[in-house]
Amino acid sequence: MAWFKRASVTNPVQVGGVVWAWGENYHGQLGSGTQDQQSIPTALELSNVISIVAGTECAFALQADGTVWSWGFNDFGKLGDGTEQDSSSPVRLDGLHGVVQLAAGARTSYALTEAGEVLAWGGNPFHELGVGPGADWITPRSQSDGFVVRSMNSAEVGSPTPVKVTGLSRISAIAAGGSRAFALDSDGTVWAWGDNQRGRIGDGTTFEHLTPVAIRSLPRVAAIAAAEMAAFALDSTGRVWAWGSNYNGELGDGTKEDRSAPVLVAGLSGVKEIAAGHSSAFALGADGTVWGWGKNSQGQLGIGHQNDVSTPAQVAGLSNVRSIAAGWAAAYAVISDGSVWAWGNNDNGQLGDPTRADSLVPVQLAGFSGIAEIAARKNSAYALASGADPESGYSQPTSNTHSTTRTESREPGSVWAWGDNFTAQVGDGSRDNRLSPTPIRGLDGVTEISFSGGQSFSYDGRIRALRTDGTVWAWGGRIVNNSLDGSRVPERVDGVADVVTLKDGFAVKQDGTVWDLRVIYLSESPHQLPDLSDATAVHPVEPLLYVARNDGTTAVIELDSYSWDHKGPYYWGGKQRPLDGPGELTSIVTWTDFASTNSWEDGYYRFDVGLAKDGAVWQWRVENLGTDVPNKSMAPFGVRDDAYALPGLTDATSIGAGDDFCVAVTRDGTVWTWGRNDKGQLGDGTGTDRQMPAKVEGLPPVVAIEPFGPSCFALAEDGTVWAWGRNDDGRLGDGSSEDQPRPVKLPGLADVCSIHAGFAIKRDGTVWAWGQNEGGRLANGTTSSSNTPQQVPGLSDVASMASRESTWFAITHPSGGPHVG
Questions:
Q1: Alpha-carbon distance 594 to 715, whole Å?
Q2: What are the residue boundaries of the RCC1-like domain, all occurrences included (predicted)?
């Protein structure tokens, strides 16, 4: 008896479909016959395809007659052709017949047959093949947190051809992710096998399962999906269950606690389809809306910002969605009309856009029509066109035929710097100032650049960069006894690895520990802060250190006047306490209220402002800041317990602070400001200070804000840039030098995707700058200022920017996926 009918019978619209592929292609995973990266979709020489599955740098196609084709990376023999030879073109798997569904893990692949049996091939280091222990029985006692602690026998190494998974029959669906697999029985039971670290199998244990075991705590299940380290089940009532790793909130239960048994994803009902990315997940509702949760560092959730969320949030602007898919840091939706929408990371053109511009919200992929299904994995994507319409598939839009203006290719994630180089900030081996962008050699794969000083803690002169491999590199320094105390080129910071985020001289590692990287002498090693093992982010705001924790709280470390300017473990002991009220904060900024006094000797009020995960904005007062130096009275710095939510800001997506004022943007695109207003920086046309937020009028819907001293910039949804506030040296870029108390639109700027302190990055990767040019800020080889935007010569493919005082940095688009520690 056949337990699963082929899609060619139940869904005739897919018969005769053609596959289109685009994105990363280092191992030929696009099936185009080459290894060239492709941001323009290309058709494969396959027809009659009814389903497409993306593996890790490989892919599989299922034809209507039940035959299977594979191509791409063939480590461990996961293509199933009996070899370990990569193939950039589809290869037919002659040993497979009567297949109705395919699935792919990290190094192992699977097929479901009409008879309800599951076949597996590829690697087997975590017993992903599900064929049992071989000659030696491995008990849970012989393992350590899921790892086999003895040499594997030959049978456990893997099989390059299909073998039958033990003990499964009457199976109706399969799924795989990372190093484990799942099978859905026709009675609604889920079976699992393979790697079980952090409870990724879901049976309540943490040791490997060599053959399938049932997850008994689940109700009757209708569909399953697997991420790299988590898994999901859709039950027959439309609820979603999750288990496994929860480091990024990918289980959707409002925590970041790993789960070895299924828990309900919060707030979801009426779900008809689920999809899993690397560390994020999505649900398609019966009403055609899409919801996402988990990791969001590259906008892969499509919710308008880049903050992780541990409960489902609605993907912006999508309706009438028919199906969904997710890669590592990008996601896709097929609408009922056959069009395709995508969002997230685009470093490899996986959004089908040759500009390689990321998108925090869904954008329609031009040229697609009549698409039946999308598949994605890592940084490659595939679209299956409907066989019912011969015109379906991809047709290259006219606008995409024009060549770009990129001047040259860049190393992945490389850093370019210019400006003041007196303390070797540029990192090029010299101390000569640079009036044009200069590459920092040997530094690629960079995701973040961090500085000490400014809003942060004491200044040690080092510039630090976080790479995709979790290492930190530093260069620059300060002048001591008329000589440079520092490095002229990047050097790896010893003693710290597996870093997931870097902020102002502090690092958070994957294990949740926090490290102080600031040094007095180059020979010093990083210091771990005590009593912190569950941090998700760190927010240094001199002289306080805020730490967001995975239990949904934020801790504050209050240092006395003798310790805030020092480093080392001694100064971090016994100072930590919870910050009452806001819960877990995703960002914190600070502004100073001078309205009550104009005298530093009389003291002043400082307010710290935090953005909570639920979109609320909280504010609290910091006391005892003192006069000409912080805390002149030598009393401990303190945070009042009366933190309060600011009115009108219940759905904020980001916050920022300039010189003594604060700004926030909400999900509906409105901008709110409060604080000092002597230069019109509040944008309300009054010049009057204000302690509570008020809406800035005259702006189109805004997606990003960037305060810059006593000025402010806003990036609108339509790609235009607006500015207000102080305007000496033409810093607003509006063509004048007059202060602007209300928003004005910058001339000549369009199609902008991000802004940074008087710079704009366009979707084509070019950088535009305006304002004062002291120190060579405009990077045009002169020191002449400009009150209108000018293109920065010599820069292309730019992803983000950073600056410290009179030195500027540009990071190009990296080609790799998000860092996984």
A1: 29
A2: 19-375
pLDDT digits (tens, 9 = 90+) for 679-716: 999 999 999 999 899 999 999 999 999 999 999 999 99
Query: For residue 140, which phi and psi values (nearest 5 degrees)?
Result: -55, -30
Residue that the structure tokens 């192992």 belong to: 108
**Tens of pLDDT along 560-594?**
444 444 444 434 544 677 888 888 888 999 888 76
Residue 18, classed as helix, strand or coil, is: coil
Domains 1-216+365-395 and 222-338 share a fold: yes
What is the second-level CATH architecture of the domain 222-338?
Answer: 7 Propeller (2.130)
Tell me how far apart the alpha carbons of residues 89 and 59 are, in angstroms, rounded to a whole number: 10
Work out whether the CA dihedral 37, 42, 46, 52 comes out positive or negative: positive
Structural tokens at position 728: 């000496």
Q: What is the Cα–Cα distance from 294 to 228, expressed in whole angstroms?
A: 12
User: Quick one: tokens of 119?
Assistant: 């076949």
Q: Where does 521-582 have alpha helices with state H? A: none
Distance CA 576, CA 365 (A): 48
**Distance in angstroms (rounded) separating the CA atoms of residues 509 and 115:** 47
How far is residue 777's CA from residue 124's CA, in Å, rounded to a whole number? 55
CB-based burial, 318-328: b 16+ in 10 Å, e otherwise: beebbbbbbbb
Annotated domain spans of the chain: 1-216+365-395, 222-338
The residue behind tokens 């896709």 is 332
- The helix/strand count (H/E) of the chain reads as 2, 65
Architecture of domain 1-216+365-395: 7 Propeller (2.130)
pTM exceeds 0.70, yes or no: no
Q: In Å, how far are 57, 482, 752 from 641, measured between CA atoms?
A: 51, 46, 41
